[in-house]
Sequence to fold (176 residues):
Amino acid sequence: MKTGKKELRKYIAELKTLHATSATQLSAEIMARLETHPQFQQARTVLMYHSLADEVNTHDFIRKWYASKRILLPVVKGEWLELYTYNGPDRMKIGAYGIEEPTEGKFTDLMQIDLAVIPGVAFDRRGNRLGRGKGYYDRLLPFLATTYKLGICFPYQLLENIPTEPFDIRMDEVLC
Fold:
């Protein structure tokens, strides 16, 4: 297999089409494991992501937990991700890249985030992450130095080796 980031993204995209029929079941299983994960159980403030069609689906999970935990979602603002508190499905709008984003509740105290659940195109067993190539999480993750970072992906997205750059930040764990 080729090892460049661009080639890995293409490889994973091909795998996603092969596994599309099992995505709903796999998402439910992965989110059930997250729900019982000790880091999630202990967390009061959790950074999640509002999933795209090709990612582990987080929508039902977010709706289930936002009443008992502070759930934060990223909002694209220029080259940066700002974090907003999720306050229900009626307070969301379609934002950048077709992703639903909260419309209110900007959150700035990043030290209060107990757990960050981070999506990726692929991860490796050492916690390295391959994103979509826009650098949004690369710019956010340095501000979450004390936060437990949990990468989340489908099993076929867990690879042996992800090429890294000096600015890449590893996940503490990958759940798939």
Remarks:
- The chain is about 25% helix and 25% strand.
- The longest strand covers residues 70-77.
- Residues 5-19 form the longest helix (15 residues).
